[in-house]
Amino acid sequence: MKQQTYTTNAKEQDRAVLVSLYTNEHKKEEVNMEYSLAELVGLAETAGAEVLDTITQNKESKDPKWFIGKGKVEELKIRIDELGGNTAIFDQELSGAQVRNLEAALDVKIIDRTQLILDIFAQRAKTREGIIQVELAQLSYLLPRLSGQGKNLSRLGAGIGTRGPGETKLETDRRHIRERISDLKAQLEEVVRHRTLHRERRKKSGIFQVALVGYTNAGKSTLLKQLTQADVLVEDQLFATLDPTSRTLVLPAGKEIVITDTVGFIQNLPHDLVAAFRATLEEANEADLILHVVDSSSDNRTDQMRVVQKVLGDLGAAGKEQLTLFNKIDLCTPEEREMLTSEGDYLKISAYTPEDLDKLKDAIQEKMTGDTRTFRIPADRGDLAAHVYRIGEVLEQTFDEEDMLFEVRVNKIDYEKSGYILEPFLETNTFANTAGE
């Protein structure tokens, strides 16, 4: 499909009033609406909007025509006119009909939470894979709402909702949009095929794989940069990095591992986005160990941790071995640090403290090695003795009559790769502690 860029006025900024609806369904799910609205403010500012005001509405259920009810729409119009706004951003997802009705009543651009997040991703995508995935997600979101996007697509003025495919003149014929979606899916399949090949090569090489996951702005990219000196963007804002970055990390015992930074999670992450970025997010599913990075200074860390676990569950990675990292403890009081706990193994760290990074490397190494085992090798089997040094870290070597005794902290991957050649010579098996305190 031939695409033509249409005129925008780069000087015009989105001046937005933010709107959130609180229903009985939210009450049942114990949704923290104040936190959700505060997060929406952060998303809007990240997208480049000037937030003029926030408005909330309590209703038993959403209005199928006006979403927040006709009376509240009239109140919203008065407020937008008073403040000179040109955009209304809603904290929940809107239907095409609701967008049409709200545009007609308010005469401003209407953006919902999903479109806002997609717009931020459009700004952040830099690699071919990221750009394809964002456009695919945006078009999948747009297709069922196409008839409700008339003003948004024709409205002069740059800003939220006009980036990515919004910068091109989208034809109203759904067939052309579907053709573009099919084309993007084919391109993405090719990219995914290459990514899968890289994963398989890493597995065959026996390299231990670690994935950094966490809520957006938890400090994953900072941690990757501090651990590996990776050249990655580090900014204090939502979704500062989008494309996954993999780097090699050398552990204290000399073993190399691959550590990958993944896209940050957020509550109500758009379904189209999860689907489009599944290949990227599956880095977590393929990892031998997941490092769940938590912003320990956030008042909403418990909700953020719950969101991350839900997304991991959706990806089928909930059962993966995890180490929770309470990051940014330098921003916490001593009392707040004491309250940081989690099910399973966890560490309290600051990505900027070298001692904490060393502690993390030791914890990863413990997770990687697992069991400490003793092998009894006949003294005349030098080939087996050499093999012992290849499957882990030899802690101690002693002699017993005509045998050699090796106490080894076994590397799980190397041991499996060896085909368990040393299994017949296994004498004892004691489990090492893998928890980090």
Please give the structural blueprint.
Blueprint: E1 15-22, H1 24-28, H2 33-46, E2 50-58, H3 70-83, E3 87-90, H4 96-106, E4 109-112, H5 113-124, H6 128-142, H7 150-154, H8 174-204, E5 208-214, H9 220-228, E6 245-250, E7 256-261, H10 271-276, H11 278-286, E8 289-295, H12 301-315, E9 322-327, H13 334-338, E10 346-348, H14 354-369, E11 371-378, H15 382-390, E12 392-400, E13 403-410, H16 412-417, E14 426-431
Parallel strand pairs: 1-2, 1-3, 3-4, 5-7, 5-8, 8-9, 9-10
Antiparallel strand pairs: 6-7, 11-13, 11-14, 12-13
Give a structural overview:
The protein is an alpha/beta fold. The chain folds into 3 domains: 15-176, GTPase HflX, N-terminal domain (Rossmann fold); 207-367, Rossmann fold; 370-431, 2-Layer Sandwich (Alpha-Beta Plaits), CATH 3.30.70. The protein is 42% helix and 21% strand. The strands form 3 sheets. A 6-stranded mixed sheet has the order 6-7-5-8-9-10, sandwiched between helices. Strands 2-1-3-4 form a 4-stranded parallel sheet, with helices on both faces. A 4-stranded antiparallel sheet has the order 12-13-11-14. Helix 13 links the parallel strand 9 (322-327) and strand 10. The radius of gyration is 26 Å and the shape is elongated. Residues 1-10, 153-157, 166-171 and 430-437 have low confidence and may be disordered. Monomer. Associates with the 50S ribosomal subunit. It holds the Pfam family MMR_HSR1. InterPro entries: G_HFLX_dom (IPR030394), GTP-bd (IPR006073), GTP-bd_M (IPR032305), GTPase_HflX (IPR016496), GTPase_HflX_N (IPR025121), GTPase_HflX_N_sf (IPR042108), P-loop_NTPase (IPR027417). Its main location: cytoplasm. This is GTPase HflX.
